[in-house]
Amino acid sequence: MTKVIAFANNKGGSGKTTTCSNVGCALAQLGKKVLLIDGDMQLNLTISYFDEETAHAFAESGKNLFTAVKEERSLAGFVTHTPFEGLDMVPSSSLMSGVEFELFSKWQRETVLRKCLRPVRESGEYDLILIDAPPTLGVWVMNILCASDYVIVPVEASPWGLFGLANMFEFIDKAREISRETEVLGIAVTKADERKKYFKQTLETLKSLEGTRLFEQYVRVDSAVEWSQDQSRPVVAFKKTSRSAVEYTNLTKEILHYVDR
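^ that's the sequence the OP posted. Answer follows.
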């Protein structure tokens, strides 16, 4: 069964796109067939695999997520291959800034993406589908949550990292009223600096959340991530021996453990 995982947090700067990008690539390295869906108008997930010129060409060509959602077409016709074996993508578009408007008048607007995604899921071509959600709470993110089996919430280990987290979980609860299959797989801590006192405070707070899994593997601050982003490659492919690449790979294995149960 193809499983769909959303990476969502209404707080910007949580490391959401970087986590989605690297988990997707690590899954492919582990032999899984993966489809990435860039749901954010900023195109950061797309640019994690393609240079900016290519990313903007996708946006202008119409072979992107916005066109698929606007026309309510199967995502199968909007898939492009990444430079990595076993890893495909549905690119985003800057026009995604208007997706809320496009969805407003649609029938069952909260489940449009789920319908677009259904043929891809039922084809069984992919083991996992990962969706990068924008840092907002609206009908589009509701679409992403309702189309997903699992939600992973990346949280930055900083004084501001926990800000708005309660709103995120309340929003997920609302999504579950529409799609009972959706569940929170866990919280992934990113941008961790073990030398800072607030890092320990963040972990203690997250561990105290009742009924919510905190993944054991957290990802520490690492300049290799920024260098990999500059080269439009996930760090797990750019520098496999780097600390962050090892941590993202371990996090991916942990995620698989719970998904495959």
